[in-house]
Structure to design on (658 residues):
């Protein structure tokens, strides 16, 4: 057992996967430069020392590297591709959406695409082009699975599942949860480190987890919002409101069973997300609840999200923009007092 | 170079197969018998067969929205390609792909990518896998003159070049990207001269001379196979049909079309075979008739073929 940050845990996990299976390799920008950074958030730091020929350091060419990862995956390798900021997935959108997501289906199921694409998300004072939570853009895309690990334990378990899965899996990691050190420390970071067991374990894709049990209201949040939902639950507990916090961990396929059990118990739900509200994760969850679990609801559903604007730079505006524990708690109070 | 008769007749037969397949399908489509859409390659047979004839077992091609010729040249069966056009479950993509996604990776062809230029990074990735696995195979990326202006071309070719990957980038320049003449979208005289931007060799040859294409393809494919890296091979050719199904190609000047018809590759090769006494006119006519019958059998087979169940649409998305 070792307590590791998400960045450290991912690094050791990637190392372990490459040792376990020689078909696994990494492909991305700045991931394998001696004396470099190990990618934008230190995750691949130093891996080139052990795996010189399996760390493919690309030019700045997101579309190219995504297509190359697809080609390699079809031929039996197992690439872990990454972009430095999830916003750059827009540069690779054709390859992700028209090629990666559709190739197996178009082949009539005759080929497989065991590809992993990792991308960091979250608003962090860098301006709107380095700030998006791109998982929302891939929710509607049939053909990719989407996971969002909010703890180091889950990051390791889900990365292993993703690498070992024969389908394309996108892994969205949060910049404020990496726990990056040294020159890459992020101000505003949240401790998402975990005790990582020595043995080989996985977290199944498609399984949510109840982070905190409660009776009065269900709060759903991924990544940073999961941590803020837990803070909100503390605030609410002091007021006598018992909040249940669910971390979906996987967005596609979404674990509606765990959600249903919670909604049946509490009758009230708050969905917190860092993306703008329109057509976000909350929209899909709320629509499904309305279709399939309406009889359990005791109050209107609440969505706490960013406004429908790009992310602003100024710290004062950023604080207004990204939902915090206070706003989540307020939404929960409104649901409970309906 | 000297060739066995069987080899030469094999080239002839395959080009005729593609031409007659495309012509038959064109009318099936216009008569409303076949669903979907089609983008055809009549006139480009020498370019496609010449390159594919230089491939070995295990080599892989990527293709475009105009893939029927590539599929037949690479060795997919006439029946499975026809079945796919009719959306049958016995199609090469089980009816899931259609005209623009022909292919079968097990037979050396990635299901065609209909996004112009989209296949270039993918071919680069296939070659990356060959290199990393130390597998002595080559990826050949077919594309048109339109694709070489897409950003994906730049990214994909550059990566092939910097890593000396076993890949050949083949541009079938048929002088039109959809309806737009290359003169309107290129300042350079050739497409292959863009190769110097990536530090790799580039060549432009007559893509309607099947033996010239074959010999050149062999050379550049061997270069790739033996660690010499990629080549940008431009094959000058012409599409003697519309861009897609209902295109009368009014943007192609009449004299140009007439010249192209006179210059088309099958007629040229036929004349070459006759002039060199490789075959008689009767022998070649016999091959033509056999191909006609082969195609009729495929059409009947496809029309009588097994339809998928409608709910098959829900399958083949994920492995698990």
């Amino acid at each position: 057992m070792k307590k590791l940050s998400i960045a450290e845990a991912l690094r050791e996990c990637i190392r372990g996967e490459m040792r376990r299976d020689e078909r696994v390799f990494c492909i991305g920008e700045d991931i394998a430069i001696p004396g470099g950074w190990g990618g934008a958030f230190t995750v691949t730091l130093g891996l080139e020392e052990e795996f010189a020929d399996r760390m493919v350091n690309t030019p700045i060419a997101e579309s190219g590297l995504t297509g190359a990862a697809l080609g390699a995956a079809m031929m039996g390798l197992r690439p872990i591709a990454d972009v430095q900021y999830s916003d750059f997935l827009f540069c690779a959108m054709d390859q992700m959406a028209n090629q990666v997501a559709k190739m197996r289906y178009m082949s009539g199921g005759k080929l497989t695409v065991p590809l992993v694409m990792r991308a960091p998300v979250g608003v962090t004072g860098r301006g709107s082009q380095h700030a998006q939570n791109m998982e929302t853009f891939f929710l509607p895309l049939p053909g990719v699975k989407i996971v969002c690990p909010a703890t180091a334990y889950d990051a390791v378990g889900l990365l292993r599942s993703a690498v070992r899965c024969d389908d394309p899996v996108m892994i969205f990691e949060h910049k404020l949860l990496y726990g990056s050190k040294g020159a890459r420390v992020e101000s505003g970071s949240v401790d998402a480190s975990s005790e990582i067991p020595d043995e080989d374990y996985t977290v199944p894709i498609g399984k949510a987890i109840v982070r905190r049990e409660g009776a009065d209201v269900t709060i759903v949040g991924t990544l940073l919002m999961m941590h803020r939902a837990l803070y909100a639950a503390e605030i609410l507990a002091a007021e006598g409101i018992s909040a249940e916090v669910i971390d979906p961990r996987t967005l596609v396929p979404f674990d509606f069973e765990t959600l249903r059990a919670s909604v049946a118990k509490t009758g009230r739900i708050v969905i917190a997300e860092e993306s703008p509200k329109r057509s976000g994760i909350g929209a899909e969850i709320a629509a499904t609840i309305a279709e399939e679990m309406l009889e359990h609801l005791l109050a209107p559903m609440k969505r706490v999200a960013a406004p429908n604007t790009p992310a602003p730079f100024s710290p004062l505006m950023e604080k207004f923009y990204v939902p915090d524990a206070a706003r989540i708690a307020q939404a929960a109070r409104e649901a409970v007092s309906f | 170079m000297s060739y066995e008769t069987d080899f030469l007749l094999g080239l002839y037969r395959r080009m005729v197969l593609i031409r007659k397949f495309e012509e038959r399908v064109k009318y099936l489509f216009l008569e409303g018998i076949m669903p979907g859409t089609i983008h055809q390659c009549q006139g480009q047979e020498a370019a496609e067969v010449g390159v594919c004839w230089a491939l070995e077992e295990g080599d892989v091609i990527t293709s475009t929205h105009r893939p029927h010729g590539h599929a037949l040249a690479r060795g997919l069966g006439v029946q499975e390609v026809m079945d796919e056009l009719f959306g049958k479950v016995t199609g090469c993509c089980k009816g899931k792909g259609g005209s623009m996604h022909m292919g079968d990776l097990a037979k050396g062809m990635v299901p065609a990518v209909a996004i112009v230029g989209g296949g270039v990074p993918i071919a680069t990735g296939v070659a990356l896998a060959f290199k990393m696995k130390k597998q002595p195979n080559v990826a050949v990326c077919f594309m048109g003159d339109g694709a070489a202006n897409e950003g994906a071309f730049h990214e994909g070719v550059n990566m092939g070049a910097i890593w000396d990957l076993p890949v050949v980038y083949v541009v079938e320049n048929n002088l039109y990207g959809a309806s737009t003449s290359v003169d309107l979208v290129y300042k350079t005289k050739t497409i292959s001269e863009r190769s110097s931007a990536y530090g790799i060799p580039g060549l432009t040859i007559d893509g309607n001379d099947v033996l010239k294409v074959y010999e050149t393809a062999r050379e550049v494919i061997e270069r790739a196979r033996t660690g010499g890296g990629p080549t940008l091979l431009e094959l000058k050719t012409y599409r003697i049909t519309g861009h897609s199904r209902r295109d009368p190609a009014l943007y192609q000047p009449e004299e140009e079309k007439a010249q192209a018809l006179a210059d088309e590759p099958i007629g040229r090769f036929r004349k070459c075979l006759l002039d060199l006494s490789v075959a008689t006119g009767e022998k070649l006519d016999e091959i033509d008739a056999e191909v006609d019958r082969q195609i009729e059998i495929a059409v009947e087979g496809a029309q009588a073929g097994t339809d998928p169940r409608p709910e098959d649409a829900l399958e083949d998305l994920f492995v698990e």
